[in-house]
Fold:
Amino acid sequence: MPANNPGIEDLTTPALLLDEAKMMRNIERLEAHARSLGVALRPHLKTAKSVEIALRLGGGVSAPITVSTLAEAEVFHDAGFTDILYAVGIAPQKLARVQALRAKGCDLVVILDSPEQASAVAKAGVPALIEIDSDGHRGGRLADDPALIEIGKILGAKGVLRGVMTHAGESYTVRGAAAHAEFAELERSSAVKAADALRAAGLPCPIVSVGSTPTAHAARDLTGVTELRAGVYMVFDLVMAGLEVCTLDDLALSVLTTVIGHQPAKGWVMIDAGWMAMSRDRGTQTMDVDQGYGVVCDVEGRVLRDLIVRSANQEHGIIALRSGAKGPLPDLPVGTQLRILPNHACATAAQYDRYHVLSAAGGPLKTWHRFGGW
Amino acid sequence: MPANNPGIEDLTTPALLLDEAKMMRNIERLEAHARSLGVALRPHLKTAKSVEIALRLGGGVSAPITVSTLAEAEVFHDAGFTDILYAVGIAPQKLARVQALRAKGCDLVVILDSPEQASAVAKAGVPALIEIDSDGHRGGRLADDPALIEIGKILGAKGVLRGVMTHAGESYTVRGAAAHAEFAELERSSAVKAADALRAAGLPCPIVSVGSTPTAHAARDLTGVTELRAGVYMVFDLVMAGLEVCTLDDLALSVLTTVIGHQPAKGWVMIDAGWMAMSRDRGTQTMDVDQGYGVVCDVEGRVLRDLIVRSANQEHGIIALRSGAKGPLPDLPVGTQLRILPNHACATAAQYDRYHVLSAAGGPLKTWHRFGGW
Structure:
């Protein structure tokens, strides 16, 4: 990154910065890993929510993508994407919107885990994956649940059974590649077992979809799997660094903020990035290193040792040395610009309607729109 | 509220609902209290961020208001408001935007607590209040800090000293009106002491501004104070109910959601309101009653006993009985609409760009725009 990127000093703070070079490095890392495993990558765009970012993924608009809302499906289809998985259990009331997108040429696929949903989906003629519970984290059926075959038959009778999918959300509770590889194998073995059970019942199961950011990076063998999903890997965050999926240097998102005051007797520096700017996410609270509301960097992105955002109100953040650190507190006069690395990129980015992009090619900042809503 | 308000069943979930009758009752409650104390009310619009709500406050566009961002100041000034306090310590870089608004006829006043800020503000000719630290919560100067007079003289020399302000954010850490009244007296006595010190130094101090939602409701005597600030009182939330500032029946905001799955063996009901819909705020986590990510109500707003959102992912919430509750879990089939009362109205509302309003007059839902950003 250039030492004085033109434009940063002119931004209204707080503002969301995206380091394009780091993002591209992260994207290429997982694409190379997926290629080496022989599976397709179906990036999850719930973190990015940006057409500009989606177009920088390996495959362009013909690539498969994953979304977390129908609003995302609509925006990305408008941008040209046609192979889209909506990876949140379908509510029957949402099928009309799914059908409308499909009628426009979008191959939008939904997920479900109950006969009731399967009946509604089959009646609507919408293709679906059956969600498999590989780790007890959230929704889905166990691979040996007899209901799996019942659901498969309801979908199969109308030709809308596309396969199975699973997500090991519990992989976020363990640290290091070896531990994540165990969850990756749990995803793989559960999904493949479910696919085999469906096939043994005479049902088709062309798609076997697995993934989370920790397991996607740690997987060593994905035999039987057809595609890998992950989302936050494009930009990473402090939670992912805490899990050792990446290092602090890989974090592509930061919040630009300005110093607005001090309480010297307490060792506090007040900034204009509160929880509205960082989100209320405290994902590192129960990790080995609690990063408060974020790690403090100088305006060029260099980490200021042991300095974190210790607490936050709506539009105020309080920076202090982390508990046990010796200091001294650096001199940060009112008006100093700083950058804060976020706990959870999905939550922090959701507080903004645009990325201010530090271009990989250098030169002035670019502005990329991002969207929210449902 | 009508039993079957037309329109709710047609909303895409998650969606933010606002009960207008409850909001008007809350607004009138604090306005009556301020009148009884003989002080002006300067509502804080950081929670509402809606012109429609601002216009339903007592005084119309001639009333004083408080904002937390310059974007709020700009929107509310465009709507006709002219007496605006920007209640976050000013960064010198933001003064050009403040001056632009003032040049358009907006009497926008800023706050500060350092000689450096005072010099920049005086040079820009922008009026300011000096922030007083009444409870050690955040920014501000102690009422007996000699720097107060130094700052006052810098502002006074250019005729831009408007007065003092304080906010007892620590009032959120105690429960009940008696405890909140002690913080209200701390706000009053600190602000009045600072005003007296400035006046004794020959400086003007026409405005003495205090407030937080708990202290504003509990204050019994505001002698020497000229105005009272509060924000979340318009809609309240579970944190305010936990502090006994209101009851659950006063909560005017809720999130409409739809059931999307079950894990019966675990007693889980999955909904499409995750942290994106509720925010990551866990403000009740350390209170006497931890409400998880929110209290579950039926679609008409009746609390379902002992049912809370126990955990949340981005677009998934998991409803379960609160710890220790006996059950049974009510029957909530896929497709059932529910309403969730939020921990923290400011954070939850920030996730949406509109309110779906249950009209006080009955009839169909209204849609009120809300905005974010800086």
About this structure: Chain B is about 30% helix and 25% strand.
